[in-house]
Amino acid sequence: MNFHGGTTLSGTSLTPLGLYAGYLLMNSGNFWVAVCFLLLTTLYFLIVVCMLSRYIINYHRNKHLFYSHPV
Amino acid sequence: MVSSSVPANRARSPGFRFRNFLFPTRFTASSFDYDAARVAAIVPTYKPGELTVKLVEDLVRWDPNISVYVVDDHTPRSPASASVFERIAAVSRNVVVLCTPVNKMKAGALNFALDHIFGKSGDVPDVILSLDDDIVIVPSTVRNLVSELLSYKHLGAVCSQCRVLNKNVNIFTRLQGLEYLGFNATRLADEGFYRGPLVMHGMLTAFRTSALREVQGFVEGHLIEDYEITTRLKACGWSVKLALNAPAWTLVPETFGKLWRQRTRWLYGGITVVASSRHLLGVLQDLIGHGVFFATVLAIDLLILFKGSGQVSPLIAEWVIGLSLLQFALWYTFQLWLMQLYEERDWRDWALRVSILPEFIYSNLLTVVQIGGYLFLFFNILKRASLKRGKLSSGWFVSLVTRLFRACGYTESWGTRAS
């Protein structure tokens, strides 16, 4: 899915890349590279959670503005 | 000279706070008299059409005190174009048509109008709007945009919501409609996060005049002058935000070729802004995006390269897969929830979103454009380094690769309105 961290669409490919990395790790892999990848996946998950948290808070603060204009 | 209706003292924008990743800062609005605020709108245009005439008419009809500066960016003379400019000039006494001596592209045309406004004797406006010439607004758009900007002393610019006027044309325009819904959501999420959203888009943004003066206008010749000026506003301590109650509609590319060309400009332009930025916090969201992407690709390369002894705990692999799936589920749920805010939606938009695949292909296609942008940047850095050292012996090779990139839509030199 689209993840717009700005003008970057980099997050777009991260879910399939994460799944691919998981598949690679299932077969074989270097322990430290595997740990690094786990940390990276966790970091990316936290970035998404933080973005959603900010959205939810700002949505509730500005909810009254959403439908205040005639289209 | 700033009018008395506007708070004279500029509030200091908060600096970086780690807690803002989760909890955005909330600001208190101050009151002001909208009717006393002086507002000017700059509409750069090249070969204007009916939408431009309608936009100028709407601006004047709904905000009678507004001054509108339509900048003809050296449109080739023809009876048809002359007639359009005559109609625009005849809309109101508040409409001024300026003409650039040569084609200056959008940033140049905006600066041309700014020079005219600041050079005039008399009052300088409190707020200056920059608008694309092919947008549609509603009666409340400008009022809400200006109100939002002048209600908060720390804001240097406020942008409109961006929506798609021609979203029903084909699958590309529908996908862009869904994508723009995401742009608005991201901008809302970034309110109160460091100094606000990454880009105050060129489609319709209201600038505080003092902020615009402080950053000395737009940089000419840049691929995306709107992102560039936003980073400079933030570097000067201004914050920016989205005005949720100020919608505007724009025309998006209807063919794959035009869409590709637009996105090569946006994405390569975005990379150049980050690469040349001296104030890295101003491009924080992009730094995170680029950083995570590169780190992931690097980690996968290492995984392939160092296969190891196969003694990695399956638990690690399960966690990686589990977190990836959880993140996907969260994001997908959010995308479905966002549909309730998409007022123009119909069953086809729902079908596109629910089925995932079209958006998945579309966004991965944009990732390909992004990777092309990285390669183009790398090539240009090498080219300049070679030129500096006077070692450009294989000029034919550079020329060939440049032509290849150009054929793929990547150039360094075009402005906002390439013909």
Detailed description of the structure:
The complex is a heterodimer of chains A (71) and B (419). Chain A is built from two helices and no strands. With 71 residues, chain A is mainly alpha-helical. Helices cover 50% and strands 13% of the residues of chain B. Chain B has an eight-stranded mixed β-sheet, sandwiched between helices. The chains are: A mainly alpha (71), B alpha/beta (419). Chains A and B meet through helix 1 and helix 2 of A and helix 5, strand 8, helix 8, helix 9 and helix 10 of B.
List its traits:
heterodimer; A: 71 residues; mainly alpha; 2 helices; 65% helix; elongated; B: 419 residues; alpha/beta; eight-stranded mixed beta sheet
Q: Secondary-structure map with pairings?
A:
The complex is a heterodimer of chains A (71) and B (419).
Chain A: H1 14-27, H2 31-62
Chain B: E1 39-45, H1 50-62, E2 67-72, H2 79-89, E3 95-99, H3 105-119, E4 127-131, E5 135-137, H4 141-151, E6 155-164, H5 171-189, E7 204-208, H6 209-214, H7 225-235, E8 239-250, H8 256-276, H9 284-305, H10 314-338, H11 347-355, H12 357-388, H13 395-407
Parallel strand pairs in B: 1-2, 1-4, 2-3, 6-8
Antiparallel strand pairs in B: 4-7, 5-8, 6-7
Helix pairs in contact in B: 1-2, 8-12
